[in-house]
Predict the structure.
Amino acid sequence: MLLKSLTTILRGHVEDAAQDVVDANTVPLLRQQIRDCVAAHEAGRRAVATIAAQCAAERRTEERLAERLADLETRALAALDHGSDDLAHEAAAAIADIETELDGVHRTVAIYSREQSRLRAMVAQQKARLSELRRGERLAVATIAARQASRFTASAGRSTLSEAEATLTCLRERLEADEAAAAALVELDAESNADAVRDRLADHGFGTPVRVTADAVIARLRARQTATTC
């Protein structure tokens, strides 16, 4: 049973260590991928800006050609009204060229407009997904840090608490021993003081003597000598 428990604990430590390695490498990988996505997003934004500028330039060309076309048509009508067929024919040829060029500009503007709309939608989608990725990254980093801190606190904390509890137990035992010793000393002091008072009283003839004196020994010897003589 003990061996099985130790094996399970060891497997748990190995899995935790493996997970830490995966986390340590996954987070930098995710950050690099996000940086790559940011770079692609910025490239997309620049592409939108470039197409928008080109589309605006084509629209200005379109307006300029439309103005020239309207001017030439007015002049060609005036030439026809005055019977200047040759000039009217030259104006018609110029109008045909402008209309051909204008038609090409119309198609270019239409292409730019569609591409600009498509890229704008793509960039907007990228922006939303990047925001979600950044939030996910922050949440993942916080979760990993919390998990590692919790696991460290659980393992290190148990050891630290056990050691602190053992230290407190030793401290309490030592204090209790010191208190017992102090109480014993007080009791001994009290007994010594009482014995000293008793001895002084006995020495002055108050109560039964508590110790043998030289006078008592002399009296006992004389009594023995008198008994021997008789």
